[in-house]
Amino acid sequence: MKQRMDKIASDDVNFATRQYTLMLDQVGRKGKVNNPRTIDKLGRLVCVPIDDWCSGFFAGDLWEMYKLTGDKQWADQAKRFTENLDSIQYLTWHHDVGFMIGSSYLNGYRINPSKAYKKVIVQTAKSLSTRFRKGAGVIQSWNVDRGWQSKRGWTCPVIIDNMMNLELLFEATKLSGDSTYWKVATSHADATLKNHFREDGSCYHVIDYNPNTGEVLHKHTAQGYAHESV
Predict the structure, then answer these.
(1) Cα gap 45→28, rounded to integer Å
(2) Per-domain residue ranges for the chain?
(3) Can you tell me the distance from the alpha carbon of 10 to that of 175, in angstroms, rounded to the nearest whole number?
């Protein structure tokens, strides 16, 4: 059984190596950095700007390829794609910096700790913390003064996905010794546990809060079938 599982793992790594080699050929190994996200209906590669919530994923995948293979070429490319995202550390207008910097800089720091990466991680946590609404004890996910979010009648929407950003806050407290980030993260998690889940264990996508009092104004979905669907 162990030999069989080892072969499955080895085959998967070899497949991933081939696929990511092809992806690097598509996005470019030198020069301008492109952040791949998906393909369109015609099979064409779609890349995104650095402020897109998916921008850090490819860099994170490259760090994982380096961990799996030990091949330095993956580390070199991971650094290149990661460091292109440097300015995200100052982004404050949405909550997805945990995906963006967590996937890229945090993965990179865990493999090859550096003061420069540590600084970016802590600054990103500081930027994310500006979205903390003390009265409600939550990190606001989306702004509601623009785009489709402004048409839903929300005041302080928090999506369940936001839990994925808390890891960055916990790590920032570890790296800096500043418990502010830990406190923000635990407050948000406690409010999510209290308000996002139904009795059967399923959860709402969006909880809309009064940011001053913490009152739940709406229990909605943004992308699901219906507000009460899973």
Answers:
(1) 12
(2) 1-130, 133-230
(3) 34
Return the exposure string of 89-124: e unless at least 16 CB atoms fall within 10 Å of the residue's CB, then b: bebeebbbbbbbbbbbbbbbbeeeeeeebbebbbbb
Render pLDDT for 62-109 as a digit per residue (tens, 0 to 9).
999 999 999 999 999 999 999 999 999 999 999 999 999 999 999 999
CA angle 142, 84, 82 (to 5 degrees): 85
Residue in this structure with the two tokens 């600054």, named with its chain if needed: 123
Residues tagged active-site: 96, 161
Residues sharing a CB contact under 8 Å with residue 105, sequence separation 6 or more, in sequence order: 56, 82, 85, 117, 120, 121, 124
Q: What is the pLDDT of residues 149-165, one digit of tens each?
A: 999 999 999 999 999 99
In which element (H, E) is residue 145 found?
none
The structure's pTM equals: 0.93
Q: Residues 81, 121: contact at Cβ < 8 Å?
A: no
Q: CA-to-CA distance for 44 and 170, rounded, in angstroms?
A: 38
Q: How are beta strands 132-133 and 138-139 bridged, if at all?
A: antiparallel
**Residues with Cβ < 8 Å from 88, sequence gap 6 or more?**
50, 51, 55, 56, 97, 100, 101, 124
Q: Is 42 helix (H, G, I), strand (E, B) or coil?
A: coil
- Burial class of residue 62 (count of CB atoms within 10 Å of its CB; 0-12, 13-18, 19+): buried
Please check whether residue 74 is in contact with residue 58, taking contact to mean a CB–CB distance below 8 angstroms: no
